[in-house]
Protein 1
Amino acid sequence: MSEAPNRNLALDLVRVTESAALAAGRWMGRGQKEAGDGAAVEAMRLMLSTIDMKGLVVIGEGAKDEAPMLFDGEIVGNGLGPAVDVAVDPVEGTSLLAHGRPDAISVVGVAPRGTMWSPGPAFYMDKLVAGNAAREVFSSELLNSPTSKKLAVIAEALGKAVNDLTVFVLDKPRHQGLIQEIRETGARVLLRTDGDVAGALMAVMPKSGVDVLMGIGGTPEGVIAACAVRALGGVMLGQLAPQKADEREAVQAAGLDLDCVLTECDLVKSDDVFFAATGITDGVLMPGVHYSGNGATTVSLVMRGRTGTVRTIQAAHRWDKLMAVSQIQY
């Protein structure tokens, strides 16, 4: 049965990520993570207050890295419209931004109230992400299989040889063994020091050049990524992977199951999900913020899960107009 069209909230949310990207982009390459993140948080919080929604921040930021915060439990939106869960990362890849490296982005995900999984004290998660063609082979057993088997199974599902694959991995000391195992299979590796939301997007989006994301990244970022993975029709597996004894103790005290393998549908329990991302620095996914003497341009991805629609929005921002009405000095 057909339904009357209703509002695509993602088209409002893109104003939020554009604003955060414009504010953060001024700090590219200046070596000041907190300043760039703080500028994005201020801009994002202001723009969120204008959106027609009763928003509850389920996935905020700051707790893991003591960053400026849009905190868990914060109420956002103007109090009108639907009751929703909100996941934010004003700057995904703060180190990438601070050092002028590729693929720093600003992201927001929204889903109906009560549908986003809350990670509580769990900071880290082992993840596996790929496109829809790999859906039939994704299972809890696959996540815990040897690296060579994972890649062989995924390659076959994608209709490729293993040495055709490109695998996104965070360039962290904990992944030295994983990176070596991937290289020994003949697959190629794309390394980034930060940004596993961006990595998940690359693994699911056609023509990104990336086939799969593997390894341990942030648990909050896993929930944000699940918003986009659901909207894009991809597949995702995640299992909590505490990196320190105190995190493990806190996770167990919270009653979270360390053996449980979660899917994208566990992390976000509705396909009525909205996602927006704006590039801050140039990267694989999209260009970053480009400034001119009288304005700037941004490029954003906007997704709606219920319809599967993905838009690329290129925007030109004029300072003479924008500064006359904006409380943020971009």
Protein 2
Amino acid sequence: MKTAHPHQPIERNIAMELVRVTEAAAMAAARYLGRGDKKLVDEAAVTAMRYTLGYVRMDGVVVIGEGEKDQAPMLYIGERIGDGSDLQVDIAVDPIDGTTLVARGLPGAISTVALADRGTMHCPNEFAYMNKIVTGVEAKDCIDINASVAENLKNIAKAKKKNVSELTVVVLDRPRHEQLISDIRSAGARVKLISDGDISASIEAALPEREIDVLMGIGGTTEGVIAAAAIHCIGGSIQCKAWPRDDKERNTAITAGIDINKVYNTDDLIDSDDVFFAATGVSSGELLKGVRYFSGGAQTQSLAMRCRSGTVRWIDAWHNFDRLDKLSFSKVH
């Protein structure tokens, strides 16, 4: 059940403004595609994203960012961002979901920003990783992260009016998923392995009529919350459970009074309908096309989502660098 928050609904579609932010980060990072330097990719995206966010009309607080202040000079957790206007919001950023993908010249990297009214984004930071299951609106009430893989796939297939053999499950290609992959195959479903980028994969699983029907497996906690913002806009469902990496992390959480068996639903992570999400492709993947440069400019493809209206927009844009540079004190491409 949602908590009542003393605020006026956000009337303007900030998602359209956030697209400018992810476009800037994507264009800055894409210059380092395939050059083998993750640090350069990340620094370029963070700098461009931080600069562009500063012009958005809001009083934002970063709740998911690049880490603590002593580790990250920009977009650190707790940083105030925006132009200081009255609108008080939480901001979650992943300047590049798939830094390794960009550095290696591989497909599927995106730049993302999620926004919700103040105090409604909740990230269980006690754990770096969580076990997740994501699906779209047709099967949103049919998943149970505590159930077996076979049972979940059977219920999802029934809700989607498919055979289990027609379902495609996306899983991060990691040694920790060896048993999960075996269980999916034993249930008769198809498996799509990805090397990185589970925000993009989660969105694919939540969107209707896509190749992917469900995401399963262990991935980053912060990525799960950012994905939850997009999933909430789409109308799908995500369930997560803590996945302690070792006994020390488990015992530290238990000592702090954390219930490691708690199941986090979409509403536990994003407790509001005033949610906005934007993403821009960096390297071309199935969700979004990557940045394509031409003489004097670039072409981008982005997503803009607004939860209250349920609208999901694909935005193709052409950027003229000469004109952009005249509008900016700093290059954002």
Protein 3
Amino acid sequence: MLIDFFFLYRPFLGLFWLDLDCAVISGLLERAFPLAVTLFIDQLPQGDWRLTAAAACGLLVLYAVNAGLLTVVIYWGHKLGINIETAMRERAFDHLTRLSWRWYDRARTGKLVARVIRDLEEIGELAHHGPEVPSSR
């Protein structure tokens, strides 16, 4: 069953790698930012305003790059999850339309539909947030 889930990523490998790469780089930058601030505070000579301004601009650029990476992770990562959720919905719909009328006479269809929708939403969220785990805080 887990292998079937991984095959859902196949049509969206570009989005998967974009999401994973941006998440990992963003995580590394988040780890590097406090080190850079410490270096900025401890190593810069006092009174050298040009060097201080350059270091502050460097930290600002680092922060802006990280914000851009997080924007990619949030937007395109959720796009990845939605695409996978849509593919799973299509498979579930194909399966449910092949079931016999007798099966539907015995089943509680309202609970079935609610369960399928809720479960597929949760799996879609896992599909998006799963690749981000290596860089989680």
